Amino acid sequence: MALLPILEFPDPRLRNKALPINDVDDSIRKLADDMLETMYDAPGIGLAATQVNVQKRIVVIDISEDKNQPLVFINPEVEVIGDGFEEMDEGCLSVPGFYETVQRPDHIKVRAQDRNGETFEIEDDGMLAVCIQHEIDHLDGKLFVDYLSPLKRQRIRKKLEKIHRQRA
Ligand code: NI
Asked: What are the tens digits of pLDDT across the range 23-64?
């Protein structure tokens, strides 16, 4: 396994749209393992391939307390159930250090393939529902800061750019 570098906002590569995965083969399983290792190391509860500069539709999530319930979603599709919304504070490994309230549909069903290419479905109206929507947004080139006011987004952008300059 290997740790993968995580792109940070406002890196334009975070705007790339990920492509469907046709074959769930060993290279995809290795990518899933590397993404999980990278996510646990960060540490975070979710990571999308776009964040490690891979344009493939795969996300990994683990919202368990003990970090021992890894979930791999390949070609995930979300269906919103009902018309309820929920507000939660979200953070992101690509926007390190910032947490802001985002409103999303609160009840969803996700359909995806697992690491063996088998299709599965999960329905959730809690933390997993929020996390999955956040990660699928990444695959479509979208970040949680896009839901904030332009002023707030600009403030975060400036702060991160300053940190990146100091690092360079
Ligand atoms: Ni994120």
From this structure: 999 999 999 999 999 999 999 999 999 999 999 999 999 999
| Sign, CA torsion 45/15/115/107 | positive
What is the distance between the alpha carbons of residues 28 and 20, in angstroms, rounded to a whole number? 12
Pick the catalytic residue: 8, 90, 100, 135?
Answer: 135
State the burial class of residue 56 (Cβ atoms within 10 Å of its Cβ: 0-12, 13-18, 19+).
Answer: middle
Q: Considering Cα of 104, then 8, then 111, then 40, what sign does the dihedral take? A: negative
Confidence (pTM): 0.96
With beta carbons less than 8 A apart as the criterion, state whether 39 and 60 touch: yes
Q: Are 86 and 134 in contact (CB under 8 A)?
A: no
Sign of the alpha-carbon dihedral angle for 20, 23, 24, 30: negative
Ligand 1 centroid–CA 151 distance in Å is 20
The two structure tokens encoding residue 5? 């570098």
- Taking the centre of ligand 1 as the mean of its atom positions, its distance from the CA of residue 47, in whole angstroms, is 6
135 is catalytic: yes
